[in-house]
């Protein structure tokens, strides 16, 4: 019998019990919906994280002293030296970090102070919302100036602008000369909660001249790995230590993060896949009941000339339609859920197309695999026995 | 005239554990084309077993069965399905129409399994329904039809496949006398137009409408006689179909 006829037959039979058909599909709807929603959200999260990290400057290299090794400390002069001995980097800047309390009027806010140099703006891929950034003479003359992140501005000044005001950082008065643009997204929370000053000014406020880390920019992303190796080598030599520095390029962070998020996405998809499996078992259950209920029908069909294959096809098509229609509804709902979620979180990237294809294909396979046993049972019924029933 | 049905020492033995029960102990008879025959017998006489064998729903344990000149007693399941589809038209006591399909679709069903195209199928099914006088009810579902109408639809289904023989199992058993007469009249009309009809029944009145009565008892033919015109029951003038 032609497959088209089987589909028409199956459709008519399913229409006889619409509620039952819908309830049977529910397992597949939920399964497919969950797979698509979770994979889409996972991929959107990966994309969002990746783009944020890339926005920080894709050629960014971070050099940090190995903490456990002890004794190795960086000072401002190391920063200037590093740029001279590593030709693969186009710029570098110190980051002198400390926790501080900032005050403006009656407002007080605990935040992070970073002493740095003019190059850090470009190396980190940041932009200014207002005012100017730290310039070379600010560093040279230890000017009492600060560039604040949008979080700090909001905490100290509310809706008004902080530009030109004087804030007190651990008691030291600093003129606000600039405000950073938000780094955006979930990572922005940290990157925006910061006060930047000339490194020389930070030395006085924090009472130290140790540099927490050095940031550098590779001349291109191609030579970033070479730059990383080169920096490791020269730092080891300068400090006569095997582990003078932990040198990490943006690419390395990116690939590490991608691995984590991809694993997470797969895991979520896998868990959702289990519910799809449960949905398949539901289909098998109902199809077994259907075959038992329709024994007479099967007997009649055989009596008037249906071959085994025709009966098998009919019931397989029926379970296939259940799973495929369920899969389609699930894909629609899952895609909708993922889109709403992505909008709410401000992530770009919509529904993962590959997840739709995967989930639909998988649901069809589930329907056919779990429909196989009931269909075989139907096709093997003895027409005499089957007609006698009911 | 050629025999549509011929059985030679037809036996059917059921095995129940270690015990063998011979439901049919060797039957020999032939039904020529165009004959209308009743098969009678009390329950346990082997009536149903014979019907299953004649309908190619079962295979004989021994002996031969020729249907339309072809031996069908040793065929595979799928081959038997094809034989049932092409050579036999079933009419059951309880109609056995599919409730999810309309009358027309029910009549089309055997032709679907024959692999006939849609337009051809529809045409033949519509003709068959018209022949049983239900043309205007073709889009009704079985549950919207009376018992007599349902049985007429099932006769149309048997007819649509142009079978060699129509096998009816107590076709009036579930019907009141008026509807039963209607269906019987339909069979007589089919007979008049030259169809071979075998009716299995225990209703003497139904049997007396046919030309010949084969009586079974304990798995054997105990009588096989033509119905004399003098004792034949009639339903007045019957139109040819």
Structure, described:
The complex is a heterodimer of chains A (390) and B (241). By secondary structure, chain A is α+β, with helices and mostly antiparallel strands. Chain A folds into 2 domains: 2-52 and 255-389, no CATH class; 67-243, no CATH class. Helices cover 60% and strands 18% of the residues of chain A. Chain A is built from 14 helices and 10 strands. Chain A has helices at 3-16, 18-55, 76-85, 120-123, 136-140, 150-157, 185-191, 199-206, 224-239, 250-293, 295-303, 308-345, 353-380, 383-388; strands spanning 60-65, 89-104, 107-116, 128-131, 145-148, 166-169, 172-180, 194-198, 213-218, 245-249. In chain A, strands 2-3-8-5-7-6 form a 6-stranded mixed barrel. Chain A is elongated. Chain A starts with a helix and ends with a helix. Chain B has 241 residues and is α/β, with parallel strands linked by helices. Chain B is 33% helix and 28% strand. Chain B has one domain (34-56, 76-226): Rossmann fold, CATH 3.40.50.300. The mean pLDDT of chain B is 93. Chain B has helices at residues 47-54, 77-87, 103-114, 118-131, 147-160, 177-192, 204-207, and strands at 3-16, 19-32, 36-40, 62-67, 70-71, 88-91, 165-169, 196-200, 212-217, 220-226. At the A-B interface, helix 1, helix 11, helix 12 and helix 14 of A face helix 2 and helix 3 of B.
In short:
Chain A is an alpha+beta fold and 390 residues long. Helices cover 60% and strands 18% of the residues of chain A.
Essential attributes:
heterodimer, A: 390 residues, alpha+beta, 6-stranded mixed β-barrel, 14 helices, 10 strands, 60% helix, B: 241 residues, alpha/beta, Rossmann fold, 6-stranded mixed beta sheet, 4-stranded antiparallel beta sheet, 7 helices, 33% helix, 28% strand, globular
| Main sheet makeup of chain A | 6 strands, mixed, barrel
Low-confidence region ranges of chain B: none
Give me the side-by-side strand order of the main sheet of chain B. Answer: 6-7-8-3-9-10
What portion of residues of chain B is helical?
Answer: 25-40%
Biggest sheet, spatial arrangement of strands of chain A:
2-3-8-5-7-6
Into how many domains do the coordinates of chain A divide? 2
Rounded Rg of chain A: 33 Å
> Structural class of the helix and strand makeup of chain B?
alpha/beta
For the largest interface in this structure, which chains are involved and how many residues does each contribute?
A-B, 24 and 26 residues
Give the strand tally of chain A: 10
């Amino acid at each position: 019998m032609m497959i088209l006829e089987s589909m028409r037959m199956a459709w008519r039979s399913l229409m006889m019990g619409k509620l039952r058909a819908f309830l049977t599909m529910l397992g597949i709807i939920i399964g497919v919906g969950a797979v698509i929603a979770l994979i889409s959200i996972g991929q959107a999260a990966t994309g969002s994280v990746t783009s944020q990290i890339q926005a920080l400057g894709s050629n960014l290299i971070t050099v940090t002293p190995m903490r456990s090794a002890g004794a190795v400390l960086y000072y401002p002069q190391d920063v200037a030296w590093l740029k001279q001995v590593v030709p693969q980097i186009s710029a570098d800047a110190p980051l002198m970090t400390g926790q501080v309390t900032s005050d403006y009027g009656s407002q007080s806010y605990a935040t992070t102070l970073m002493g740095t140099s003019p190059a850090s703006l470009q190396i980190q891929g940041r932009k200014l919302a207002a005012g100017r950034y730290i310039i070379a003479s600010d560093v040279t003359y230890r000017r009492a100036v600060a560039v604040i992140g949008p979080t700090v501005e909001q905490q100290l000044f509310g809706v008004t602008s902080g530009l030109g005001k004087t804030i007190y950082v651990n008691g030291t008065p600093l003129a606000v000369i600039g405000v950073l643009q938000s780094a955006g997204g979930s990572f922005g929370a940290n990157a925006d909660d910061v006060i930047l000053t000339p490194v020389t000014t930070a030395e006085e406020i924090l009472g130290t001249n140790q540099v927490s880390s050095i940031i550098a920019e590779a001349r291109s992303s191609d030579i970033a790995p070479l730059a990383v190796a080169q920096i490791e080598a020269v730092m080891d030599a300068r400090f006569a230590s095997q582990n003078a520095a932990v040198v990490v390029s943006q690419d390395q962070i990116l690939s590490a993060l991608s691995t984590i998020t991809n694993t997470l996405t797969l895991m979520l998809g896998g868990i959702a896949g289990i519910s799809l499996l449960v949905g398949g078992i539901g289909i098998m259950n109902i199809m077994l009941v259907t075959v038992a209920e329709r024994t007479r029908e099967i007997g009649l069909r055989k009596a008037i000339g249906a071959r085994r294959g025709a009966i098998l096809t009919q019931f397989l098509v029926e379970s296939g339609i259940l799973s495929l229609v369920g899969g389609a509804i699930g894909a629609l709902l899952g895609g909708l859920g993922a889109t709403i979620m992505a909008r709410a979180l401000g992530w770009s990237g919509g529904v993962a197309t590959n997840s739709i294809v995967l989930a639909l294909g998988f649901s069809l396979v589930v329907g056919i695999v779990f429909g196989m046993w009931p269909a075989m049972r139907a096709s093997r019924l003895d027409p005499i026995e089957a007609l006698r029933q009911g | 005239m050629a025999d549509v049905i011929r059985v030679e020492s037809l036996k059917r033995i059921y095995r129940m554990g270690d015990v063998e029960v011979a439901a049919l102990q060797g039957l020999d008879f032939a039904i020529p084309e165009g004959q209308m025959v009743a098969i009678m017998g009390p329950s346990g006489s082997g009536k149903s077993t014979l019907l299953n064998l004649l309908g190619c729903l079962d295979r004989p344990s021994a002996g031969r069965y020729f249907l339309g000149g072809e031996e069908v007693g040793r065929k595979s399941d799928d081959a038997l399905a094809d034989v049932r589809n092409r050579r036999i038209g079933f009419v059951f006591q309880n109609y056995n129409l599919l409730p999810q399909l309309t009358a027309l679709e029910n009549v089309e069903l055997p032709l679907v399994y024959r692999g006939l195209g849609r337009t051809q199928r529809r045409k033949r099914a519509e003709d068959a329904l018209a022949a049983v006088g239900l043309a205007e009810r073709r889009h009704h579902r079985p549950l919207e039809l009376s018992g007599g109408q349902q049985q007429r639809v099932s006769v149309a289904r048997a007819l649509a496949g142009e079978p060699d023989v129509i096998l009816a199992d107590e076709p009036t058993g579930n019907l009141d006398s008026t509807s039963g007469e209607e269906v019987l009249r339909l069979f007589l009309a089919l007979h008049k137009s030259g169809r071979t009809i075998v009716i299995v029944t225990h209703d003497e009145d139904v049997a007396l409408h046919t030309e010949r009565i084969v009586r079974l008892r304990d798995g054997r033919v105990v009588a096989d006689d033509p119905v004399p015109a003098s004792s034949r029951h009639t339903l007045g003038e019957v139109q040819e179909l």
